[in-house]
Amino acid sequence: MFLRLKGRFRKTTQHISRQLVTFSRVFLHFDFRSFEYISNLTVTSREMPSNVEIKAKVKDFETFKRKAKEISDSEGEIIEQKDVFFNVPQGRLKLRFLQNEPSQLIFYQRDDRSGPKVSEFYTATTDKPDELADVLSRAVGEKGVVKKKRLLYLVGQTRVHCDEVEGLGCFMELEVVMKENQSAMEGEQIARDLMSKLGVEEADLIKEAYIDLLSTKTA
């Protein structure tokens, strides 16, 4: 009986170890044992989900917020966010500090182009973001920090973000949360339809992430 239990325990620990190594290779390309003292880092998405996103500079922020409020039929939700980005060989890796809920480690990949684009991502949660940020900074180096005040509206399956980004100004971002078996083309059409309703013009679209805009500004 003891031997059978011992064998099962060994198989279970080996399985968990393989999952953690796979997770670390996707995110950081270094040994996940660096996180031994942060025992509550929890992977929340193993299959890579995706969004279709549009980002644009907003000239008249108050008018845009009014339209978003009317279309969503809601007052929106105010969210204060701080994203710390880290150096990785591909995609982007950020630790998002959130208020009143666990912080998130997010790895995502998307094309740097204006207009609708698919963003694929993994997430993990932690209630020790400062310790995790310290480990990541030592392991791969910090790229920069983005601070923003976000007003969130929900329109169907789309998250409408009205962002006031510290050091950059006012922007809007649409995130169409893709459903299972939904095509990228369908997601892009949803984004473009909502973009039109909100009065966003092609000339206002931007391809860069906020961290890249800040890096260019301070270079």
TrEMBL record:
SUPFAM superfamilies according to UniProt: CYTH-like phosphatases
Residues annotated as domain CYTH: 49-216
SMART domains in alphabetical order: CYTH (SM01118)
InterPro entries: Adenylyl_cyclase_CyaB, CYTH-like_dom_sf, CYTH_domain
GO molecular function: pyrophosphatase activity
Name used for this protein in its record: CYTH domain-containing protein
